[in-house]
Amino acid sequence: MFGARSKLDRGLDAFDRREWKRARRLLQDAIEEEPRAAGHYHLGLLYWRGLGGESDKRVAVEHFARAAEDGHPGAETAYGIALRSGAGVSKDNQLARQHFRSAAGAGDAEAMIQLATMSEPDDARHWLTRASESGYAPAMLHLSDFWINRDPVEALAWLYASVTLAGDDAARKRAAALAKEMTAQEIEEAQRLGRQYAKEIAERARGPR
After folding, report:
1. Cα–Cα distances in Å, from 46 out to 13, 53, 70, 110, 144?
2. What pLDDT score does 1 carry?
3. What is the pTM of this model?
4. What is 1-118's CATH number, 2.60.120.260, 2.40.40.20, 1.25.40.10, 3.60.15.10?
């Protein structure tokens, strides 16, 4: 016979179902009984966004910092964003960068975007490409912005890839606007590349057969 599910599990389920008040209550109880990184991170998100109760950036950052100490990639990214913006904590770009690098090393795509926006062009392209190749639609928009004045075909290709994989409305609108400035041959090449990128990303997501 299986034991009763923990408050942490029930709190995370409530979070996924967007039952914010219930999630906040259960996660608060859970971390008091057994502090876990996932509990601190998700409770931090609730306080950061003001879901299920008051918004309190300082309390949110405390939870992010606790989870980041345990190496939770999402918490490291969230803590880095707070440190970079100075919301709920003293601004510290150097420490923010350290947390972004750690989270990016663990595969967190949002951390890669954050690193890109703090980097020189070559490093920015590296991080945005890695994040885009993971299938993260926001990264594809950023990568398109990176290429827009360097290689418009490449920029349009990543917008098409985002539309193909995620049906992203922002990418679709940008693609339509950009295509108006390009030749039929350039559009055709961007469509080909976009399909290729989307196929490669989807294959990586499925993993080895």
Report:
1. 14, 8, 19, 18, 31
2. 39
3. 0.91
4. 1.25.40.10
